[in-house]
């Protein structure tokens, strides 16, 4: 049984989803049931995953349940996998619900939080700084915007009616990958292109939030299953090498 709390974000995505009561109900159930850590559990669920039960317990008919699942997948909010244990749902975006996932334990080398600082060292950001941080913009030619747009483009190639995200929200996750996680633009681009050709991951990485969350696992999988070079690409390489 999961304890703790979840946060309902006051975001444009939330107001949009409220218009679809069945999809909102199902996403709420997933957020409430989702694991907060990767610790061992009898269903072998990972953080952000939930095992769904009988849809009638959520007040949905079978048709309403299937329709809600399709819409959450189409909007890049959740994915669903049928298993012998039942249907496993995975949250893909924190734009609506923050499930309060437990972060890794801090080490002694990590910077102290504001609460851990002595009273005379505490940082008190002013309202202007908070507003500037919230409204941070990324130029169209920046790595943040370019890579966020790349992920959207390769998804739209497979699904033209994919629900368009808020550009700044996707770009900020790329920014965090570059600044906080130490990823390089070339690595991020390679993983984006690979995951959208992989039969499993292409339907699970439908936002930059999911890309950041699973980046290490994606790189490991990519090393095991390198992308196959198409015939056209192979011919182009041979022409460049003047061996054709």
Explain briefly what this protein structure is.
With 244 residues, the chain is mostly helical.
Layout of helices and strands:
Blueprint: E1 7-8, H1 12-17, H2 21-33, E2 49-52, H3 62-74, E3 78-83, E4 86-91, E5 97-98, H4 127-134, H5 143-158, H6 167-179, H7 185-195, H8 208-213, H9 215-224, H10 231-240
Antiparallel strand pairs: 1-5, 2-4, 3-4
Describe it for me?
This protein is mainly alpha-helical and 244 residues long. It has two domains: 7-98, Arc Repressor Mutant, subunit A; 127-244, no CATH class. 43% of the residues lie in helices and 8% in strands. It is built from ten helices and five strands; from the N terminus they run βααβαβββααααααα. α2 (21-33) crosses α3 (62-74), α5 (143-158) runs parallel beside α7 (185-195) and α7 (185-195) packs across α9. It is globular. The model is unreliable at 104-113 and 127-133 (pLDDT under 50).
Q: Note the beta-strand portion.
A: 5-15%
User: Shape, please?
Assistant: globular
Proportion of residues in helical segments? 40-55%
- In total, the number of strands is 5
Q: How many independent structural domains?
A: 2
What kind of sheet is the major sheet? 3 strands, antiparallel
What Rg do the Cα atoms give?
Answer: 21 Å
Class by SSE composition = mainly alpha
* Helix segment tally: 10
N-to-C SSE string, H for helix and E for strand:
EHHEHEEEHHHHHHH
Keywords:
244 residues; mainly alpha; three-stranded antiparallel β-sheet; single chain; 43% helix; 2 domains; Arc Repressor Mutant, subunit A
């Amino acid at each position: 049984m999961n304890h703790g709390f979840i946060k309902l974000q006051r975001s444009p995505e939330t107001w949009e989803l409220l218009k679809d009561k069945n999809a909102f109900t199902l996403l709420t159930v997933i957020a409430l049931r989702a694991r907060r850590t990767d610790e061992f559990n009898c269903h072998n669920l990972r953080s952000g995953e939930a095992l769904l039960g009988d849809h009638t317990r959520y007040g949905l008919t079978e048709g309403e349940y299937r329709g809600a699942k399709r819409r959450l997948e189409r909007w890049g909010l959740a994915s669903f996998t049928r298993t012998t244990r039942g249907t496993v749902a995975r949250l893909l975006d924190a734009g609506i619900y923050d499930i309060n996932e437990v972060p890794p334990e801090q080490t002694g080398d990590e910077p102290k939080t504001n609460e851990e600082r002595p009273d005379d060292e505490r940082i008190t950001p002013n309202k202007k700084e908070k507003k500037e941080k919230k409204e941070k913009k990324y130029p169209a030619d920046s790595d943040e915007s370019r890579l966020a747009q790349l992920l959207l483009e390769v998804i739209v190639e497979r699904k033209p009616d994919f629900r368009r995200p808020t550009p700044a929200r996707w770009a900020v996750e790329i920014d965090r990958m570059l600044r906080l996680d130490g990823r390089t633009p070339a690595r991020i681009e390679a993983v984006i292109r690979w995951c959208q050709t992989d039969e499993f991951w292409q339907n699970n990485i439908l936002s930059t939030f999911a890309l950041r969350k699973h980046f290490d696992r994606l790189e490991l999988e990519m090393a095991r299953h390198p992308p196959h070079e198409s015939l056209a690409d192979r011919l182009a390489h041979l022409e460049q090498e003047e061996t054709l």
